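User: Sequence recovery, please. Input:
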């Protein structure tokens, strides 16, 4: 039974196809551990296997971030304002997984409306990191990451707006990938910042990430910004990095402040491994990446303030009745939104207000363009750029809750990619001690590439993953490099 829960998605699917493992048995094993969830990773778990049957993911249970609408099943986006909301339809991403044979194992906890880097902004309590339950799993897809790392799900999906798949994957010692903007449909994915949000997989290895992305990607008539990935996704097979050029942007690596020594060492070791595998590594620059966080915290709240205007107590979830309609709106939003969401709405409406629009939103958009140009320049000389995923390993619960700026800096290395619309993957590169001592915790290594370079990126990540040899099966089993 323990062994069942250690199979990768590829291994389990293979056994199910061969008739060596019953889909019901596999589902039941996961349902039992997910129901006993000691990490607060789940907000809801399925009783029955609602699988789509055959297909490449036949019999595979998937943990789904509670930001994806699931017909008839409570969907909260981590917010009290959506308590009791049961969507009348299912997100395309979830539907596609089902069509490939997967079933929804549960809905996972998250930072409210995907705003956060630690999962402490959830309206339903924080998620605990399976490596050390006094620490955060990262955010905002923290429930999905903790479920996969803690052996409570074989794989999961999440969303990434500024780092919310890659950063929790890094902090939990698993693989997390943000595809190119437009690769996966956003239909039925509750909106945070629509020009940045993308759905992607959180898995135990790179092959599983490819398997999930293969099912998820594709053009969807319900999302006019979706285009899919030309030719689809191939399973990665590469074992060397011969002929590939990797740029290390000094702003996000060597010269970046606040990177823990343990993270830096793991990063440098991994860069050396790239060279051992035949890859060429050289320093590069992304001169505007240092302004990524500033631009992101204007653009994302601006879009969020517009997207969140729809929660009024009339159409979805919570309703706090007032004397008249205006008071009902006010009370509902007062009671339903948490403090971080209110902060973002205020920041966003201010940045968009007439008279300030050009100074804030307009300027942030120009910075965004510059960041995209920096990447385009780097990709003239390099196939990929590599950085640490998170400046630190998992931090203690409460450590950054009183300091929004410190929290925002968790995404220093992950925010530039969604601003440029490009894909990036985080793979575990080993373990390191946190600053000031403590248990050995996972470190993430990030590979970013040009738009629609997913196949090449998965291949490179696959070769590197083999060379690193990280055992992500479960922290309880002493996974480590
Ligand atoms: N941590 C960032 C934020 O709070 C990114 C979140 C995300 O990618 N959804 O906005």
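Assistant: Recovered sequence (481 residues):
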């Amino acid at each position: 039974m323990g062994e069942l829960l250690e199979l990768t998605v590829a291994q389990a699917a293979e056994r199910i196809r061969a008739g060596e493992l019953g889909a019901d048995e596999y589902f039941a094993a996961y349902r039992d551990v997910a129901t006993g969830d000691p990490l607060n990773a789940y907000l809801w778990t399925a009783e029955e296997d609602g699988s789509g049957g055959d297909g490449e993911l036949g019999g595979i249970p998937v943990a789904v971030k509670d930001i994806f609408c699931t017909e008839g099943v409570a969907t909260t986006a981590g917010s009290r304002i959506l308590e009791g909301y049961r969507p009348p339809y299912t997100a395309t991403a979830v539907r596609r997984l089902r069509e490939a044979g997967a079933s929804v194992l549960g809905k996972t906890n998250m930072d409210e409306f995907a705003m956060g880097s630690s999962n402490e902004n959830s309206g339903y309590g924080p998620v605990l990191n399976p490596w050390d339950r006094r620490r955060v799993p990262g955010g905002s897809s923290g429930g999905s990451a903790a479920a996969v790392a803690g052996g409570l799900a074989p794989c999961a999906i999440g969303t990434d707006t500024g780092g919310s798949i890659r950063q929790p994957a890094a902090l939990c010692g698993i693989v997390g990938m943000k595809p190119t903007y437009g690769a996966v449909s956003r239909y039925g994915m509750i909106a945070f910042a629509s020009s940045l949000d993308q759905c992607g997989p959180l898995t135990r290895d790179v092959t599983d990430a490819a398997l999930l992305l293969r099912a998820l990607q594709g053009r969807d008539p319900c999302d006019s910004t979706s285009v899919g990935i030309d030719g689809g996704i191939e399973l990665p097979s590469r074992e060397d990095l011969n002929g590939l050029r990797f740029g290390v942007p000094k702003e996000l690596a060597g010269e970046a402040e606040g990177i823990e020594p343990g993270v830096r060492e793991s990063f440098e070791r991994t860069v050396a491994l790239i060279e051992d595998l035949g890859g060429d590594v050289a320093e590069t620059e992304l001169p505007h990446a240092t302004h990524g966080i500033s631009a992101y915290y204007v653009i994302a709240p601006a879009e969020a303030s517009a997207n969140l205007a729809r929660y009024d107590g009339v159409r979805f979830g919570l309703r706090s009745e007032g004397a008249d309609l205006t008071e009902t709106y006010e009370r509902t939003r007062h009671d339903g939104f948490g403090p971080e969401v209110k902060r973002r709405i205020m920041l966003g409406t201010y940045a968009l207000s007439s008279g300030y629009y050009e100074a804030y939103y307009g300027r942030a958009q120009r910075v965004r363009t510059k960041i995209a140009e920096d990447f385009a320049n780097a990709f003239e000389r390099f196939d990929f750029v590599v950085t640490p995923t998170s400046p630190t390993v998992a931090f203690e619960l409460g450590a950054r809750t009183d300091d929004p700026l410190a929290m925002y800096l968790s995404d220093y290395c992950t925010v530039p990619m969604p601003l440029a619309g490009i894909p990036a993957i985080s793979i575990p590169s080993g373990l390191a001690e946190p600053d000031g001592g403590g248990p050995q915790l996972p470190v993430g290594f990030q590979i970013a590439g040009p738009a629609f370079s997913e196949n090449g990126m998965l291949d490179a990540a696959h070769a590197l993953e083999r060379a690193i040899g990280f055992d992500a099966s479960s922290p309880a089993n002493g996974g480590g490099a």
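Confidence is low (pLDDT under 50) at residues 477-481.
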